[in-house]
Amino acid sequence: MKVKIRKKIEKTRKKVISYENMSGPVTPDVSIGRVSRMDAINNKSIVESALREARGQLSLLEYALVNIDKEDFGHCQNCGQKIPLGRILIQPESVYCVRCAQ
Questions:
Q1: Domain co-membership, 39 together with 57
Q2: Residue ranges in the chain modelled with pLDDT below 70
């Protein structure tokens, strides 16, 4: 399980770096049309949203890696029930069971 989490962390870190590189400012000195500039600004907004999501997932994965050996790992932080193993295997960063996550 630790190996899987470490692989997901590495993959997510690469995503974060990629999104950071893509989210640079849209400079007005570049000679593009008004519609193209608006499209670039919209795309930047989408990339920034993806970047926030990736950073959040990275934080949860790092939390999971640190806490994987603790007795309460794999228990829902809301209701305390055991999170199904399938959910943990797919999303090791999950801190809520399916019912509480909704």
A1: yes
A2: 26-32, 34
